[in-house]
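REQUEST ID: PR-0412
SUBMITTED BY: lab tech R.K.
PRIORITY: routine
TASK: structure prediction, single protein chain
INPUT:
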Amino acid sequence: MTKDPELKPDFAKPDTIVLASANKHKVKELREILAGIGIRLLSTEDFPGLREVIEDADTLQGNAWKKADYLYQTTGLPALADDTGLEVDFLNGAPGVYSARYAGEQASYEDNVNKLLRELGSTDKRSARFRTVIAYKSESGTFFFNGLCDGVITKTPIGDNGFGYDPVFMPDGYQLTFAELMAEVKNNISHRGRAVQKFMQFLEQMGKA
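STATUS: complete
OUTPUT:
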């Protein structure tokens, strides 16, 4: 995994960034964060005709890079993309990069969760972690930011918030799953939240360079 980057003094903070996502919640959240440091955020919805990037790399970093590279090459703007996987120790790191399609290419969130619980069965060895890799590409190069959140897989789904594996992931230090935690708490401790925090620190340093 590439280390989080160190800033070089000749880099400049961008005015605009395009995000490789049409997820309205994700776009809104990140748009509000970036507005606080004077950066406008666009999304793939602002560029009709973009093709869907096939996430067929064998690492999270590879998928994030593919999306960021395509957006940068197509729009000419600094581009941001992420990929996330759930790594379960008892399953030797699975589902990992295949988390979104663990139960098949057209699998629903519920399908994936149900397969995960079947694979774990009654074992008490349920330690796991969520990992997010953010890729940022601009004329200065490509940079990666990593976020981790350790926890355990519950034996049954609990909670109605969130998405994906949130109802069966209980982060260390909490007695609630991601699907039970308030959004503000989850975003502060989550894998994606930690990766975004590193990216924000990087941008703030760029503004001071």
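NOTES: The CA atoms of residues 7 and 205 lie 7 Å apart.
REVIEWED BY: pending
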